Amino acid sequence: MPISSNASYKPPFWQFNAHIQTIYPSLMRKVKVNYKRERVDLPDGDFLDLDWSYCKGKSEIRSSKLVIVTHGLEGDSTRHYVTGMVKKFNDLGFDGLGWNCRSCSGEMNRLPRFYHHGDVDDIRFVVNYAISKGYKEVVLVGFSMGGSMTLRLLGDKPDTVPNEVKLGVAVSVPLDLFTSVFELYKKGRRFYMKRFIDKLGKKIKAKTEIFPNHPIINADGYEKITNFEEFDNRYTAPLFGFKDAHDFYKKAGAKPFLKYIQKPTFIFQAINDPFLSPECFELGEASDNKNVHLELIAQGGHVGFMMPNSKETYIENRVAEICKTTFQVV
């Protein structure tokens, strides 16, 4: 069946609710990998920073296999869930690539635009660029927004996905972006949204200095923005050609594209995830797509899934298990 429930995962006993399961690893979990940064220029004149971690700690390509990990909204390649997955795959004999969305690598990007959940051009560039280095087997892993981007890549123009891509994985992903946005309006969850708005605001102010006369990039009155609708109406929608925020939410989500995916793809969702709506726990029109497998897990929070007495997460071990037993890519 494409949808399954896993009751075996249990968080540490002291992580007794979704917020602790979400916040603690975000603040406290550290996984170190040895990254080698490469900056690549994009066709539109911008750039991306790619962070490579070669298996066995080497400083150059040592494997024909690669995992490409995509971070979430306002994350980067150093987030614990990225480095944890990269390290797990390094231990399995894969090279790892944690790439940074525009403006997320510690340096502001060159153009007014940022990135968004349905922005597939950059991840497509990264995948093709990585494969051009000679990798023969590639696994794509995305978390939260990065999961949405990964699924969009696999489902949008699926015939163009390189043969070298063998497996897709998406974790804690807002499959239905429209309804998930409004989950963070609920009591007890708005502080997550405020944190994102504050982080995005710093970048808007930095870009205002770079583009002082830009018709959209303007920080005046930013302090009045209190939610995603206001931010996306003012910035995301006009920058990317959407009619408004609601048009963006309806068109940028991954769910409508799941039915087109042709590669084996696993989606892992915690039912107690404070970021996700009930619509993110079913596949909709993709229910008959045998390539897409949705695993529902009772607990784990948003991009948490820490395990008792272990430095690794349930997701890292589960994905490694899939690679070993199902696809035999290790």
CATH class of the largest domain: Alpha Beta
What is the SS-derived class? alpha/beta
> Per CATH, which architecture of the largest domain?
3-Layer(aba) Sandwich
Compute the number of structural domains: 2
CATH fourth-tier homologous superfamily of the largest domain: Alpha/Beta hydrolase fold, catalytic domain
Global shape: globular
Question: Main β-sheet, in a few words?
Answer: 9 strands, mixed
Distance between the termini: 25 Å
In the CATH hierarchy, the third-tier topology of the largest domain is known as Rossmann fold
> Which segments are poorly predicted (pLDDT under 50) over 5 or more consecutive residues?
none
The largest sheet has its strands arranged as: 1-9-8-7-6-4-5-3-2
Strand content: 15-25%
Mean pLDDT: 94
Counting DSSP E segments of at least 2 residues, the number of strands comes to: 9
Count of helical segments?
A: 9
Relative helix content: 25-40%
Q: What integer value in Å does the Rg equal?
A: 19 Å
Task: Spell the H/E element sequence.
Answer: EHEEEHEHEHEHHHHEEH
Write the layout of secondary structure elements.
Layout lengths: L2 E4 L11 H11 L7 E6 L5 E7 L11 E6 L9 H12 L3 E6 L20 H11 L5 E7 L1 H11 L9 E7 L5 H7 L6 H21 L17 H13 L4 H8 L12 E6 L21 E6 L16 H12 L5
Parallel strand pairs: 1-9, 4-5, 4-6, 6-7, 7-8, 8-9
Antiparallel strand pairs: 2-3, 3-5
Helix pairs in contact: 5-8, 7-8
